[in-house]
Amino acid sequence: EIETPVKYRRLDRDQAVVLFVDHQTGLFSLVRDYTPDEFKNNLLALADTAKLFKLPVILTTSSETGPNGPIMPELKNTFPDAPYIARPGQINAWDNADFVKAVNATGRKQLIIAGIVTEVCVAFPTLSALKAGYEVFVATDCSGTLNVGIRDSAWLRMNRAGAQLYNWFAIGCELQRDWRNDGEDFANLLANHLPPYANLIESQKATIQGV
């Protein structure tokens, strides 16, 4: 079988939904391919992006009463009204009927998926959703695992199956499309999560003010 390149499909703010899969306090300790501060910043940046563009959000956890732990409180606090699927044991979120029902209920076909850990909690539902006919966009820097070798092989597996790999910044830019579309709000989001971008904005302000 000859592999064909994944076709470029643009994210559409009217078709996208964000799935936060197993961002649990216990599992967070398994993330070693990003520093803790870097990973949490990336994750919250994606959350803020979802809020800015008014994207539907679905939260899910697996066996949260065990060592996996509860969902990260920052996510629950950011999306208090989002569907919250506490899976009793299914490792692949797509094996949980309530989770799939929540995804279907959005009426959207573009799934932005992030989770812990990348090769399991992200890859398994990604592959299942692709098989079910959804377009999948993996938020790579909002998904973490034990090391970069495991991460890279998981990325390759998902990409070959048809998923597109994005970081949160690229996701935001593709949803924004044009700086003339309320670009100041998006710029502020970037400044909040990217210190170099905040410096850029301050430099521009100083130039405008003639300082």
UniProtKB/TrEMBL annotation:
<dbReference type="InterPro" id="IPR048239">
    <property type="entry name" value="YcaC"/>
</dbReference>
<dbReference type="Pfam" id="PF00857">
    <property type="entry name" value="Isochorismatase"/>
</dbReference>
<protein>
    <recommendedName>
        <fullName>Isochorismatase-like domain-containing protein</fullName>
    </recommendedName>
</protein>
<feature type="domain" description="Isochorismatase-like">
    <location>
        <begin position="17"/>
        <end position="165"/>
    </location>
</feature>
<dbReference type="InterPro" id="IPR053152">
    <property type="entry name" value="Hydrolase_YcaC-like"/>
</dbReference>
<comment type="similarity">
    <text>Belongs to the isochorismatase family.</text>
</comment>
<dbReference type="InterPro" id="IPR000868">
    <property type="entry name" value="Isochorismatase-like_dom"/>
</dbReference>
<dbReference type="InterPro" id="IPR036380">
    <property type="entry name" value="Isochorismatase-like_sf"/>
</dbReference>
